[in-house]
Design a protein that fits this description.
With about 350 residues, the protein is an all-alpha fold. It has 2 domains: about 220 residues; about 120 residues, Arc Repressor Mutant, subunit A (Orthogonal Bundle). It is built from 19 helices and no strands. Helix 16 packs across helix 18. The longest helix is centred in the middle third of the chain and has 26 residues. The protein is elongated and about 95 Å long. It starts with a helix and ends with a helix.
Length: about 350
């Protein structure tokens, strides 16, 4: 069967082929995070199905309805992609996923009903509710996608990040205005109505290419999560955290447990008979360390400083002291020691001998 008349007018097959080739070339780099990669894949699949369905229509045969249903929720997936793209954390949240899943389910129901039983929607209150719900969720998703790029937009952002967000907001808003507000709402018989499918196909293709470019940009320019201030960090520490932090320090210093090679937070949690996540919370909250390794290395370096300054260990090599303090090799010991004291172990020992 031939392609639809509108598609044939502006050469849809050739445009789709070129766009697919460009998208394939742009998406070869690894996604910056799993959530960005997954959301891009979902949006890309839905947008591509929309383009194929709008271009070829009934020429797809039995696959026409499933392809149309897959492409009907592209606006929802675009919101999740924007959410992953402009948020530093991986957690997408539960309610956005539920909302987009509901949008996709409603779109699939309406698409299959229209294909299998035309006219049934007009006589079924339940189907009208589903259709109205789909349109409402779709409109909300379009606005929420733009709001994701607006969140955190300030002069403090790097210049390239501000350009990316401005590009996203401008391009997304322009395509919504053209495809949804102009072409989709045009009166029958007008020029906009005649070229409605073509305009939507072009906009969907441009959106897919733009999303791929944005994903590739994010792979080389990842967002950094802002570190909480000291006051915010202290607010997260509860009374239980402080009580557990005391036990942590007692356990680590008792019998020099901190000097045990390859000591892990899981091993410490088992000794304390406490959940691992609570131990981590106490370390980063009440004790103010970045993580477990930093806390342990701090204790190890303090012991190394004592040994390097003690004449009783004057004949012991620095490597032997590093092993005695819990380091498995000299490299990590030297780096941790210099980071803590701004001096190498040998220079520290020499200064202590002179004093």
């Amino acid at each position: 069967m031939a392609v639809t008349e509108t598609s044939a007018k502006f050469g849809a097959p050739a445009i789709i082929a070129r766009a697919a080739k460009l998208i394939g070339a742009l998406s070869r780099s690894a996604p910056p995070t799993p959530s960005v990669g997954l959301c891009w894949a979902l949006f890309a699949t839905s947008a591509f199905c929309f383009v194929i369905s709008s271009s070829f229509g009934g020429a797809l045969g039995p696959a026409a309805t499933p392809v149309a249903a897959c492409g009907a929720a592209a606006c929802g997936w675009s919101w999740l992609f924007a959410r992953a793209l402009f948020r530093a954390r991986e957690d997408m949240g539960v309610w956005p996923i539920i909302m987009v899943a509901a949008l996709a389910a409603a779109a699939a129901v309406i698409t299959f009903v229209d294909a299998l039983a035309p006219g049934l929607e007009a006589s079924s209150p339940a189907l009208r509710i589903i259709d109205n719900g789909q349109k409402l969720l779709g409109s909300a998703a379009l606005l929420l996608a733009i709001s994701e790029a607006l969140q955190g937009f300030s002069n403090a952002l790097p210049r390239r990040e501000k350009r990316l967000r401005a590009f996203f907001i401008t391009g997304y808003a322009a395509m919504v205005a053209i495809a949804v507000l102009w072409a989709n709402q045009s009166a029958e018989g007008t020029l906009a109505a005649q070229w409605s499918d073509a305009v939507k196909i072009i906009c969907a293709t441009a959106a897919l290419i733009g999303a791929t470019v944005a994903m590739r940009y994010r792979a080389t320019h990842p967002l950094k999560r802002a570190a909480p201030s000291g006051r915010a960090a202290r607010r997260t520490a509860t009374a239980d955290d402080h009580a557990l932090s005391t036990k942590i320090m007692q356990t680590l210093t008792r019998d020099d447990l901190f000097a045990t090679p390859d000591l892990s937070v899981a091993q410490l949690a088992r000794r304390l008979n406490a959940p691992e996540y609570k131990v981590t919370q106490a370390i980063t909250g009440a004790l103010g360390a970045r993580n477990f390794n930093q806390l342990v290395n701090t204790l190890r370096i303090e012991r190394a400083k004592q040994m390097l300054a003690d004449p009783a260990f004057a004949d012991q090599s620095i490597f032997a002291i590093a092993l005695d303090c819990g380091f498995s090799s000299i490299g990590p010991f030297n780096r941790a020691f210099k980071q803590r004291t701004r001096s190498t172990p040998s220079a520290f020992r020499a200064a202590e001998r002179r004093s």
